[in-house]
Amino acid sequence: MRVYGRSMRTHGWAGDPPRDDDEARARILTAARARLAAAGGASTSDVATDLGVTRQTVYRYFPSAEDLVTAAALDAVGELTSHLVDHVRDHLDRTGGDAGDAVVEVVAYVYEHLRDDPALNRLLAPGRIPATLAGMTAPSSIAIGRRLLRDFPVDWDAAGLDDAAQRELVEHLLRTLQSLVVDPGEPARTGAELRAYLQRWLAPALR
Questions:
Q1: Cα 29 to the center of its chain, rounded Å
Q2: CA 205 to chain centre
Q3: What fold characterizes domain 69-206?
Q4: How many Å apart are CA 181 and CA 183, to the nearest integer?
Q5: N or C, which terminus of the chain has less Cβ within 10 Å?
Q6: Rounded distance between C-alpha atoms, residue 100 and residue 102, angstroms
Q7: Is-contact 145 174, C-beta < 8 A?
Q8: Euclidean distance between the first and final Cα of the chain, in Å?
Q9: Which residues contact 46 (CB under 8 A, 6 or more apart)?
Q10: Cα–Cα distance for residue pair 142/47, rounded to 1 Å
Q11: Residue 2: pLDDT above 60?
């Protein structure tokens, strides 16, 4: 990790320079996501202006606007993943829900964020969807899903799901997400309608 030299510390960043490259990268991504939320796009020039730095500073970390937007989307994915377990735990605590309720909320929560978060929505832009859909069911995605599954307040073994069945469950949830992304329905379901639909057709498999 490279720490900034004296000359780097005294210029730009609106008088509040980052401590190191990691913090600089995080600030750039935060600014990019804010721009995406406010304007639907994030140019290198606009992000640099928002941060009080030159475009060259942003280019040091993200060589192009496309790299910047892609990194912002991946940053949003990481944030979503980190919040998902807490959300499902809170949901089950509030509702007294079971394993079926857990998987319904997982699919609905992730789908809503993919649809509504401006940074995540970039993953669904024309030209990106095939790669996004393929990545959803990649072995690495299933492995992440299995780790998340184990953190939910559900006794999967007691629900009759051994390791192989848990892997298939994660794959099925990801394929359900794929289907919703490809065709959300016409008109698209509201959050309550989506959860009712998943309760009818997804949850019973775990009850």
A1: 14
A2: 26
A3: Tetracycline Repressor; domain 2 (1.10.357)
A4: 6
A5: N
A6: 5
A7: yes
A8: 50
A9: 35, 39
A10: 34
A11: no
Q: Which residue has the tokens 């992000």?
A: 47
Residue 106 burial by Cβ neighbours in a 10 Å radius (0-12, 13-18, 19+): buried
Preceding omega of 153 cis (within 30 degrees of 0): no
Q: How far is CA 96 from CA 27, 63, 101, 144, 151, in A?
A: 39, 48, 9, 26, 17
Q: Which pLDDT score, from 0 to 100, does residue 161 have? A: 93
**Residue range(s) in the chain whose domain bears CATH number 1.10.357:** 69-206
Model pLDDT for residues 150-171, shown as the tens digit of each residue: 999 999 999 899 999 999 999 9
CA distance 162 to 172: 15
Q: How many CB atoms lie within 10 A of CB 103?
A: 24
> Residue 62, SS3?
coil
3-state secondary structure of 53: coil
CA 114, chain centre distance (Å): 7
Dihedral over alpha carbons 170, 124, 140, 93 (to 10 degrees)? -40
- What backbone phi and psi angles, to 5 degrees, belong to 189? -70, 145
Q: Using one digit for the tens of pLDDT, what is the confidence trace for 90-139?
A: 999 999 999 999 999 999 999 999 888 888 877 776 666 777 777 888 89
Residue with tokens 């072995």: 139
